[in-house]
Amino acid sequence: MEQVLIAGATGATGKKIINFLKESQYFEPIAMIRKEDQKSFFEDQNVRWILGDLSKDVSHTCKNMDKVIFAAGSGGSNVVEIDQEGAKRFIDASKSNNIKKFVMLSSMGADQPEEMEELHDYMVAKHKADIYLRNSRLNYAIVRPGALTNEAGTQHIELSHKLKEQGSISRTDVAQVLTRVLHDDTANKETFEIIKGGRLIGKALETMSTVEV
Asked: Is the sign of the CA dihedral 131, 142, 140, 33 positive or negative?
């Protein structure tokens, strides 16, 4: 099984990612936590963990990992330090450790942050992090969901490199997409948007099935 490190494992979406990976026959999740008192949540689920603070050097966290998911966020309180520079530190750590695939949780609007009056600073930070990943020479998938909700997952989405409409999507469905694009034959060096829709996630992702480049 491939070892997958999740940055942001303690967040609402991160915990759902962990749950999906626990059910996988291909991947084993490793939770990156900032404080040691967060470990019990994962130990109770028999999930391995590693200490790492995105505001500092995290190069040690990616050792012996195969792939990574960046689902961390500052919650709007420190977007430059965490959402932008923290992502860059994690990308650099992934490069140093020859990570085979980097899955980035981004956001709709990150491609044109100048058009986003609300959350402008956040979108700029995500935009810069996405560009840094694209230029890193790592294999990557950048997933840009619409507004995240805590509704139950539907397993149905709309997906495109650039959607024609805004929309929302459940964290559960986003987590499922993030785990599915870890596979080698799906979404290699791709950036795409997702919202709640009418296509099964697996079918929608077939449009992103590619040979690794």
From this structure: positive
The residues spanned by each domain of the chain are 2-143+174-193
* CATH among 3.40.50.720, 3.40.50.300, 1.10.238.10, 3.30.565.10 for 2-143+174-193: 3.40.50.720
- Give 208's pLDDT tier (boundaries 50, 70, 90): confident
Phi, psi torsion values for 89, nearest 5 degrees: -60, -40
Residue pLDDT, tens place only, 144-161:
999 999 999 999 999 999
pLDDT at 210: 60
- pLDDT category of residue 102 using cuts at 50, 70 and 90: very high
Confidence (pLDDT) at 211: 45
What b/e string do you get for 130-155 counting C-beta neighbours within 10 Å, with b at 16 or more? bebbeebebbbbbbbbbebeeeebee
CB 33 within 8 A of CB 50: yes
